[in-house]
Write a structure and sequence with these properties.
Order of helices and strands: EHEEHE
Bound molecules: iron/sulfur cluster
Helix content: 10-25%
Largest sheet: 2 strands, antiparallel
Number of helices: 2
CATH class of the domain at 28-92: Alpha Beta
Distance between the termini: 61 Å
CATH topology of the domain at 28-92: Alpha-Beta Plaits
Number of strands: 4
Structural class: alpha+beta
Amino acid sequence: MSIRWKSWKELPLGMVIPEPATSLEFKTGSWRALKPVLDENKCIRCLLCWVHCPEPAIERLEGDRVRIDYNYCKGCGICANVCPVHAIEMVMEGGEE
Ligand code: SF4
Ligand code: SF4
């Protein structure tokens, strides 16, 4: 028996993104198990975390300060990994107090 693979043109439509920035409507922070905690005293404002975050979860503020928006942060840890001065620490959700 041979398998006939479908061309992409035969596949049913999966999802339509009708306009840009629809991800802002989906608050994905509840998916998170680990939470990034920022130490503003260590931050050198390089913006690497802002560039690499895959979600709209790091806000760029005046003077290139950054703030984490926990409504969208999924806790992937990329920001903590790219930070050159270890200003972001990943902690267990709820264990940051
Ligand atoms: S943990 Fe991931 S999603 Fe959350 S702020 Fe850092 S890079 Fe963005
Ligand atoms: S990567 Fe680190 S030092 Fe750079 S802006 Fe983000 S928190 Fe600050």
